[in-house]
Structures are given as structure tokens and as C-alpha cells.
Amino acid sequence: MARKVVRVLVVTNDWEGAINGGFIRWNEQPSPDNTNDILGARFQLGEFIKVLQETEWDGFDLEITRAHRTTPHPASGEERLKQSRNADVVGFRFDKGFTVSGESRQLSDYDMVLFFAISPDMSEDETHEGLQKESEAVAYYMENGGGFFATGDHENYGSALCQFIPRVRSMRRWYYDGPESNGEPVAPSALGPDRNDTLQPDRDGKFIFENQSDDIPQPIEPVWFGEGHACKGGCCVAGRFPHPLLCSPDGPIIWLPDHMHEGICEVPDNLAGRTFTIGDRSFPEYPLSPSTGEPLAPEVIAMGNVLGGHPSPTFNSEIHTPTDKLTESRTFGLIGAWDGHRLGKGRVVVDSTFHHFVNINLTGDCYLSQVPGVSPDDQRFFGFYVPDPLSGSRIPTGEYQLIQWYYRNIIRWLMPAKTKE
After folding, report:
1. pLDDT digits (tens, 9 = 90+) for 59-80
2. 266: three-class secondary structure by DSSP
């Protein structure tokens, strides 16, 4: 009997003229002196995709389609754009069909979407009307059981489309400044004392932006639950356990990559008053739970901590922007989850930042090669890969192996109920 195939659509974009997203593997990224676009390789998802592709999935095979939203122009043909982003599809739009290896596809052909939204702005070929049509296509997909993951970064990174997608738009803050926020809570800044700075000090006790690329992750605090959540692996402690997204065979997942300015996930207010539209019909964003008669609320399932009282300087100010503003101690929501399966709909996961998934936080900062005096053996060139004294090669740290279970759990948890049957 043939194994079940779970189809995953991974989507990203560019911030035109500033930062390019893509799917290049970390050891295949162009070095800074071999590319005309010095920012081009920073926010690549190649290592994350590699983890998923090399996982031995229990009971199913994973098929990943890498979709990029940048549209080819005469100066950058389709094949050239695909190659530069390592994408299967370019010019992707959620409400349009597309072709993968000669086969026509559409959104409904996939079990889940993982959307790593980079740009805070609309691209030159996007419009508010077009983005709203896309959000309706996503809403219809979610109402019919499709799983959806979304993340951005600080301020309004990722807001262009995510501000319209039901549940995604309210489980995480996407607004920073301006009248378009419509009174929604403002996201943390990039450089102010209110920034969600999860950088950890290096072994010399220093806080430096590039520490995001070393082998020291941020400790996180899973939210512990009782009844209503399945307990797997060795995660149960005194009858309580973390959300399934944070369980592993090796115990609770208690680490994530660190970063200088993360976003924030939360449970929004006024759940009963939130609605969205598909065509001319209105739907509750958080439908009533039959068991309680109340709107089914999302949950914040992990908390992060800001270590207060430090600035965030950088080795390379051409790539990373430093700040001398001192951090303020705080705890904030790192991951949010909504269990739509309880109501026959798709599940939703949001994360505070795409920096929990991109190469520069996992496998090293190649731009340190531009900084005089930085040793080629500096761990910040290699991320979570450390020397193995037995083989002489580099291997993932134990903390990173635990983080990889979070990546796998996103796939397992977002699988539509019908796919799991």
C-alpha cells in the first residue's frame, strides 16, 4: 500500500530593494563578495527546508513546494528568478493557480501553508484589493480544513498580506505605526527600549547583534497544560505537559534561536466581536465552541524573556543596525496556536519571528567575513553546528536538535483532520 503524501506549500517574499527571502541551503549561499546583492542571502530558509526533507516521517511522505511571491520582470526572467531564490514557483499568489514540474496546482491541493512573510510593504505589483482577494482565498482554505502557519518580525514586517488573514491577523501583532492599524495593538519596535530582544550574552558576557548566529540559543518557557492536550514523548511532568508543538522524544522543547528584535504573539481581545468576509458573507473569526458556548480562543503556548539593561551593538553596521538604547526586562508571547480541528476547520500557528527559521540564525553569519579581525573559527560563522572531536566535521548541538522537533511538530500539528484519518 502506497504511503500517504502530505503536501506542504512554503511561501516567502522579498522586501524590494532591501532584503530577499528564499530557499537557498546555508552551505550554498553566495559569499558577500560573490553576489551583487549584499543582502540577498540573509533570510534564506534552506536549512529549515533541509531539516524537513531529511526527516523520516512516520506513516507519510512529505512533499514540499517552495513558492516565492516576487514576480519575474523582463530584466529577471522566470527561470533566473527561480534559480536565485531556489524556488519551484515565482510570482505566487494565493488566489491564483500555478505550475509545479509541469503539473497544474492550486491552494486547495495542499494540506498546509507555511508563510514566512518578510516585507512590511506591498510590492510594486501588489494592491490592497488584490491582497484582500488573496486573504479571502486563504480564509476559504482554512475554513475547509487547511492548516496555516505565519510569521514576520518586529514592527510591521510581514504585514502587507498578514493584516488581512483571519486569525493570523489577530493572534500576532502586525502593525507598528500609521492609520492602517485601526486601533489594533502596536508591535514592538526594532531599536527602542521596548524591543523584544532575546539575544543571549556570548561566553565573554557581551551582547552583540551577531550573537544571534552563535551556538547559544534563547531559553523559552513552554506554557504547561492539563486536560485537553495530548501528552507525547517524555514531556509529562506531574500530569502537566506543554502543547504538542513543544513536545519531543527528548522532553519539552525549551530552546529557540535568539534575535535582537522579535515580534509578539497574543490572545486578542473581543473574540466574539471579530468577523471576516468571504465574498458577500460574514463569518466569525473565532466561532463558538459547542462545549463552552464561548468563542474558541487561541492559546499562547510559549513565552520568551528579554534580559534588561543592555544595548545591542554590532560588528557589521552595514548589515545589522545597532542600538544604544538599553533593553527593558519583559516576558512576551513567542508562539500562538488555534485548534480549528475542534470546529472542523484548519489549525493556525503564529510565531514571533522568522529568525527562528532562517539560515543566519541557524547556520552562521557569512557577512562576518567583511569584518577585520574576526577569526575564521568564530562560532558565529557556523551557528548551531559545532566541531565533532571524533569525526572532525561539524554536527548540530543538542539544543538545535531539540529545536528541530519544533519544526517537525508544526507539520504534524497543522495536518488537516481528514489527512490524519
Report:
1. 999 999 999 999 987 766 888 8
2. coil
